[in-house]
Amino acid sequence: MVIKYERDNIDTDVILPGTYLKIHDYDELATHAMEGIDPEFHSKVKEGDFIVAGKNFGCGSSREHAPIALSHSGVKAVLALSFARIFYRNSVDGAFLLPIEIDEDTYKNIENGDELEIIIEKNEITNLTKNQTYRIKPFSEIISKIILAGGLFKFKP
Amino acid sequence: MSQTLFEKIWESHVVVEKENGPSLLYIDRHLIHEVTSPQAFDGLRMKKRKVRRPDLTIATMDHNVPTSKRTLQIIDQTSAIQIQTLEKNCKEFCIKLFDMNSPYQGIVHVIGPQLGITLPGTTIVCGDSHTSTQGAFGAFAFGIGTSDIEHVLVSQTLWLETLKPFEIQIEGKIRNPFAITAKDIILSIIKNIGTDGGIGTVIEYRGQVITDLSMEQRMTICNMSVEAGARAGLIAPDQKTFDYLRGRKYTPKNYEDLVELWKDDLKSDPNAKFEKSFRLNVDDIAPQVSWGTNPAMTSDVTETVPSPEEFAKGDEIQQKNVEKALQYMDLKPGTDITDINIDRVFIGSCTNARLEDLIEASKVVKGKKVSKKVRAMVVPGSQMVKKEAEKMGLDKIFKEANFDWRESGCSMCLGMNPDILKPGERCASTSNRNFEGRQGAGGRTHLVSPVMAAAAAIVGHFVDVREMEIN
């Protein structure tokens, strides 16, 4: 199911506020995910959910805790108009979640609560609620290899 | 073929290159702090691996460190554990650590250049986005996450996607160099190109204005490249760069030979092609004050807080961004920036806590007192900065004006140590991020230069520092 935030520049300080960077337990980190803008997030997010957001998702700090907190909350992918590059790399390096770039029409069409199916091999998203299909901006070669390998340390060039 | 400076540094560090694909780059220097490194060391232990080049890896502690007296115990147990963990990891893996009691401790991006660890033409990484600061020395310096830290620890290399060179040409003449600072230049750039204007790029700052800046001012510019979305920012090294690094603790023995090499090579060729280009004229630039929740939401001090419609210019999502930002900041459109009252002032951070920043701010403060409504603090970027400032008597100037004079660390830039804003408190801050909750949950941050922060501390609200009387 989709949890949509209609805003750009969702930064790492709202994805995981700095004060929690001292926590080492990933499941405990997850209880604070998105706390900066959505204190309800932890109670509503379910395993297999997707976040949809605007431009420059994950801007700010290099904390890998940000994708870790989302991933351990159950988020499988973030669909955004664009991503800050450190967050993007962190997401795939640790195989935490898929950072998927979408276009403006797709962004407008997907609504809060929609059920989606993402087929990476076809670069395709199916909106099961609305019976629509959208294209994903393909991953670059290295990113898709790291994703398919299951993270940076399993990746063989 | 003509190349940009960035392309030259990249090319000279490629270990493996895949056609149209990623490159494996050699990393010359790896800096480490306590927040993003623990899991990387855990990974090494789990896989029974060693650090490949402990001699090229240097650590300090900055994010969690309290800025009160060093002799006091750390009260926050989780902070204390993170600091002890770094000590333990550095010992186990034979990494040089500048700990809390070291005269070389400080914010990692401040001490790198001060110790001569940062060198032109090198690749430098750290698990911290503001590593871009060190691009001011003509290095390709960038932030990485914890998985990449582990990769560098184990192999001294990193897989990287190609980045595009982006030229920012800064032209014109700054009329009042005391009031219009490097911070105002970089905030103006971000205001113009947006927080995502540099995604997928490495910015090279060029032009006479940049040449005229000091090394410390250049670091302020490169520091906030990441706030424009760029992976790194850099400036071609020149005589100022070479002079700055001469004779420092880790400056190489064959330094003068290296300078001869760098002089000819480390600049973009005359016909080098940049993928993107932007020009900023500084003739009429004013002191900048951010009013929103990202660094692009910034205005001249002479302006008013814009309305969402006015700022968004028809972009629906942007309009919502601004509505939410103004709500969080508790500001109404049309309010004069100079009518915004503040509760706190923070002069510090890897953006603006070097010696020159403190010297300039002290000129505003000298002989005056902090407004009774305001609590103000100065946090030097490193112990070395603190010592030099004290030698010049700057601590006395600040203390006499009722500023708190603290020990070095990241402090109130990011809400990880005891220096935080209370919910609703409004702060004039020389740091780099005005994100929601950045300086503490519910805190409201306005990004400004050190002289603007100092002026606001005295008056209790923002003021055009060009109109202040300076002793």
Plain-language structure description:
- The complex is a heterodimer of chains A (157) and B (471).
- By secondary structure, chain A is an alpha/beta fold.
- Chain A has helices spanning 12-15, 26-30, 41-44, 65-73, 85-93, 104-109, 141-149, and strands at residues 2-4, 50-53, 77-80, 98-101, 116-119, 124-127, 132-135.
- Chain B is of the alpha/beta class and 471 residues long.
- In chain B, 32% of the residues lie in helices and 17% in strands.
- In chain B, the strands form five sheets. Chain B has a five-stranded parallel beta sheet with strand order 5-4-3-6-7.
- The longest helix of chain B is centred in the first third of the chain and has 16 residues, at 77-92.
- The chains are: A alpha/beta (157), B alpha/beta (471).
- The interface between A and B is large, with 44 and 57 residues.
Helical fraction of chain A equals: 25-40%
User: How large, in whole angstroms, is the Cα Rg of chain A?
Assistant: 15 Å
Task: Give the neighbour order of strands across the main sheet of chain A.
Answer: 1-2-3-4
In terms of per-residue confidence, which ranges of chain A show pLDDT below 50 for 5 or more consecutive residues? none
Shape annotation of chain B: globular
Structural shape of chain A: globular
| DSSP strand content of chain B | 15-25%
CATH superfamily of chain A: Aconitase, domain 4
Question: What is the makeup of the main sheet of chain B?
Answer: 5 strands, parallel
**Which blocks of ≥5 consecutive residues of chain B have pLDDT under 50?**
none
Percent of residues in β-strands of chain A: 15-25%
CATH first level of chain A: which class? Alpha Beta
Rounded average pLDDT of chain A: 95
CATH topology of chain A: Aconitase, domain 4
